[in-house]
Design brief:
The structure holds two protein chains of two kinds.
Chain A (H helix, E strand, L loop, with lengths): L3 H6 L4 H32 L9 H13 L8 H29 L5 H5 L1 H31 L9 H29 L7 H8 L6 H25 L7 H10 L34 H9 L5 H5 L1 H4 L6 H15 L25 H6 L5 H5 L7 H13 L6 H12 L12 H5 L13 E7 L2 H5 L1 H16 L4 E2 L10 H5 L3 H16 L2 E7 L2 H10 L6 E3 H10 L15 E3 L13 H8 L6 E2 L29 H11 L4 E4 L2 H13 L7 E4 H6 L3
Helix pairs in contact in A: 2-9, 2-11, 3-10, 4-6, 6-7, 7-8, 7-9, 10-11, 11-14, 25-26, 27-28
Chain B lengths: L2 E4 L2 E3 L22 E3 L1 H17 L3 E6 L5 H10 L3 E6 L7 H13 L5 E5 L10 H9 L2 E12 L2 E7 L5 E7 L2 E5 L11 H6 L4 E6 L35 H14 L5
Parallel strand pairs in B: 1-4, 1-6, 4-5, 5-11, 6-10, 7-10
Antiparallel strand pairs in B: 2-3, 7-8, 8-9
Helix pairs in contact in B: 3-4
Classes of the chains: A mainly alpha, B alpha/beta.
Amino acid sequence: MVSFPALVLQGACGISGHMVMWVIAIVALTVFAFIIRSRIDLLLAGQKDPRFSNLKQRFRDLVEYGFIQKRQPRYLWAGVIHIMIFWGFVVLGLRSLDLVTEGLGFPIFRPFMHSPLGVFYNSVKDVFELIVLIACIWAILRRAIVKPKRYEGSHTLEAYVVLGLIGFLMMTDMLFEGSGILLTGEAQGWLPAAWIGTLFLPENNPGVLSVIFRATYWLHILAFFVFLNLLPLFKHFHIITALPNVFFRKQNKGEIKPARYGVDDIFELETLGVEKIEDFTWKHILDLYTCTECGRCTDNCPANAIGRPLSPKELTIKLRDHAYKKYPILPSSAANKQGEEPVPMVGGIIGLDELWSCTTCGACEEECPVFIEYIDKIIDMRRHVLETSQNPKTFNQILMFVEKTGNPFGKPAAKRADWVKEQEAGDVKILKEGDRVDVLYYVDGYASFDPQSQKIAAAIVKGLKLAGMDFGILGKREKDTGHQVRRMGEEGLFQVLVEENTETLSSIDFKWIVTTDPHAYNALKKDYPEPYKVFHYTQFFLSLVETGHLRPQRSADRSDLYTYHDPCYLGRHNGIYDEPRRLLQSIPELRLVEMAKSRDRSFCCGGGDVMLWHEIEQEEMRMAEKRVRMALDTGANVMVTACPFCLIHFEDAIKTGGFEDRIRVVDLMELFMSAF
Amino acid sequence: MNIIVCVKRVPLTQEVDLEIDDTGKKIKEDALAYVINDWDNYAIEAAVQFQEALGGEVTAVTIGNEDDEEVLRRALAMGADRAVRIDPGDLALDGYLNARILAKTISELDYDLILTGVQSEDQNTGMVGIMLAEQLGLAHAAVTNGVESDDGAAKVRVELEGGIDEVSRIQLPALLTIQTGINEPRYVSIMGIRKAKKKELKVMSLEDLGFAPEDLTPQTRIEEVFLPPETEGAEMIEGDPGTTAETIIRIMGEKGVTV
């Protein structure tokens, strides 16, 4: 059995062949080390970020999302192309190593290659060469002809160069092996790619064949090393960084990162938030390296969809361009590394309204095939904006109210339980220190004070009573969880609220917390240090139905067609998709249809945080109106949701959009209680 | 330019059902949340903006107990350089005494400009700033809604009745009472307020200032505090514009207005 690479390097130019390979390899690897150094410098300059916990899950994710690439086919054809190329790379990696080690004169893979398994591998590799070649051509054509909108603003030239280079690698190997077969008459295994190669070769001209044989080998090797060096310069750095990025992914969705990892008391810090690139954690910098600019994030961003000045993809590209400029490959061009930066990163490169446009709905993160994080970065930058008083002035009073009264309306704390009387909810126990109760119902600010949301609270109370539950509320001792203020960037105030609420909760002996609001649910579950048993009302009431405590009797009107809108902090952030639907369907004869964008692709209503108090002027349509139109597309005449903010936004949009005679919105809890 | 800014901590009374205490002369204050007086917030911002543009130091002054230091910390977080709290002990205060105590405190400080809010949200008398100017023998401008530095003087815009503004030049040192809306006060975070603990905050007693108890007799006495009596409700006039207009004219006629 012959080794083709060995054949190239044999004979008259054999020794120099090895020499040439050594020179190529050393030069290429030196250049690569030089390039990668500045990338590593920046990573090391980043902040702490512990990402080594829960290793078992990390390895599972690596397999599921890294190797099986489960998120890729969410965009079917692009996903298929990507998986073809990715698996091609995995398989062909060994082939490349073999070609290079043979060239270096250390043919360590030769024994394997000449074994029966190696012959089988050779066939598999050949098949994958064809698969990768087809995928590259397909990908080039998609970009050139189909031009998907989500690639707008991406580095398309880089894509062409890299796809072309990969194709070139495949073709040179096909011709190399093809000419080898023709020269020696030996083929190791069934080699369809090499056979196709032979079709283009002058079969009966050994002289020319021999030249092609050598040339394609060296061109392949050169292309391989050029490719390696292009990776850290292009968006194709992800070929190196994507697997680590998936491995180190954020595991607790919905949670907001602390101001600084490893700091227990944030008040010991000099400053909060991210002002400059080094203030990001190393993982967030790795995110920047890993973005392939596929645009799936922006394609699913509700803020982007209604014309707000936010594109998650461009946010990453801008931060990366800035990072690369600040940490250049050639040190001399680091003009502004020290001293003042001419354009501030936050407020300059990243605009303030860009930061405030985000509703933290999480659609971008749900979609990203390599788990790039946006919410934490945006909140971290907001923290800096707020600490330096660059926040929208409308926040000043809201935050002051939350601090002083525990709610954003500035209503006196003493009136926090007035909704019970106003909504005629009957007797509700107000818990005092030392009380014992099964269910602590955490009402939160909106359901306490906003007349529309109060009705949800009243329905919850009615349901808890009907099921004979032992429950109570905190009354004036309850303060807002701080979900909003944390996402507005006021971390200090959030910490104060956590401290106060945790203390209040610790004075009561309860089994479970039930919340009105998915945001409060998320905050208590994810942002609070105590491991409370928290349930959103949809979960809690479903369990009451399924254990036979409650049975809706009154049928829904058959003329009504319902569609359920997944609130972001129930669905995407907490994976609660089925419970609300099952609770809905416990109502006899209820007809339910799904919107095209539902479950983890749900489209945000406008959000429960910043949007309530800050208007982004650059907007073509209200987010909620766009969502109402999606609901209308299903033919439904009732939108059901399970979050006070969704309810408020949709009600508003139905009125202002003039859809009142076509659709109405109802909270799931109120709807459920109407079935008794 | 060295600036003194006088601030006060006041209860947040929005939508609070105020209750009168047993003496009938005071409002029950224990259940109330306290904030910085809104006018004073603008005064601090104005002072800090001057300091940022022209240099110098800003000193925030308040009269109150330890809890009232909160508003000084806020002022420090907004950019004031130091703060002074005068502890009045159990002394009952009125606008006159506040002005006297502030005058004594400030007379020992170095200043070019004194800023106060137009009035305080709790008492709404609007006296302290003007009386303070008088006590210190300073020129003053009240209800200032615009101010610029003008070569050793200040160009000030004040609100007059009927929506008229008046612009004048005032020689420094002077005192200005600041109207809301003159600027956009910056947000100071909880973090910022905590950090401001590192700045100097001096506490002085009335004795430190050289006052004897008999010097400090209030000039006003509260006889009674009561909630405004409930009056009859409004009447909603319904119907088409023609009938509504007729009804309005009829009601006006009944009340003695001739059209």
